[in-house]
Amino acid sequence: MQATAIAQPNIALVKYWGKRDLARNLPAVGSISVTLSGLQTEMTVRLNDAGHRDRLIVNGASAEKMLPRVSATLDRVIGEKREFAVVESRSNFPIAAGLASSASAFAALTMAAAAAAGRSLSQQELSRLAAESSGSAARSLYGGFVELRNGADEIHVSQLAAENDWPLSIIVAVTEAGPKAVGSTEAMEISRKTSPFYGNWLAHQDGDLDIARGAIEARDFAALASIAEHSCLKMHSVMWASRPPLVYWNPATLSCMQTVRDLQNSGADVFFTIDAGPQLKAICSPDDSDIVHDALRSTSGVIDVLRSALGGAARLVVDE
Ligand code: DP6
Questions:
Q1: What is the pTM for the complete model shown?
Q2: pLDDT tens string 230-274
Q3: pLDDT of 122-144, one tens digit each?
């Protein structure tokens, strides 16, 4: 049995940072994101009763390091008593783009694994399973503007607005190639245990989510820009105050922030967000996307610029 699914990365506007249950990978806070278009991960899961171990191939090359996390996902979705699987992943964007490739990968893997095993699961069930592999992956099961609510014992993921309801452009300024210094899972635990700002971060998240939800409902760009930049800078403040400090930015990240400020001052509808890496993501109105692209492209230290729009939900390509 084999199935293929496609999922797109997402970018959080109100950030997820911290876990309340490490074993189940339950987040400490809810989050709101936008799903991208154009950039995607295609994942094929082939269950093979003749195999004697799982295999993972990423963009044509064997990827042993990621295999345990992939096998654990297969166990969760299909059950531990299962056939071994050959998993093939193809992404059309560079992992170094800092676009949370784990989000699109684990969303697509969860969907493909369920289909290959003949399990018919709802989008909500798939997103809960994906979240156990990577919190942000839960959001990539849905398209457009997506909220992950942190319920008492489980998460609830839903779409706040579809991708066509409020079209926006996303411009990613890549300032550094190569993997991040500290992975999100480890870094979140460092922040939870050591950052003096962590409690405050948790205490204000629900208020930030309310403001962002309201801004999306009202299509209020200025309000969304303000709360998204605030959430991003607050998350990085939690990181900076952790011990050891988690500083993901480089000088070019700051130059890009200045570029966005200059664009805002000249009247462009644009704001920035930055995840656990040095790349800056600018969210802007489609009308301003050319000037935002050109300004970031010519910012000192920027090595590449990717353009995207809002995209749809994860989907099955083959189900046999
Ligand atoms: C900064 O989803 O990668 O991008 O659940 O440990 O896999 P794990 O973490 P992950 O964290 C994403 C953190 C972030 C903010 C966000 O996407 O909300």
A1: 0.96
A2: 999 999 999 999 999 999 999 999 999 999 999 999 999 999 999
A3: 999 999 999 999 999 999 999 99
End-to-end CA distance of the chain: 6
For residue 236, give the H/E element and its range: helix 221-240
Q: Give nearest CA residue, ligand 1 atom 1.
A: 275
Q: Are 67 and 54 in contact (CB under 8 A)?
A: yes
Residues with CB under 6 A from ligand 1: 12, 15-17, 25, 31, 100, 102, 134-136, 184-185, 275-276
Among residues 129, 133, 103, the alpha carbon closest in space to that of 9 is found at 103
Radius of gyration in angstroms for the set of CA atoms belonging to the chain, rounded to a whole number: 19
Which stretch of DSSP H or E encloses residue 221? helix 221-240
E strands within the chain? Answer: 2-7, 10-14, 19-21, 26-27, 31-35, 41-48, 55-58, 61-62, 84-91, 145-150, 155-161, 169-174, 270-274, 280-284, 304-309, 315-319
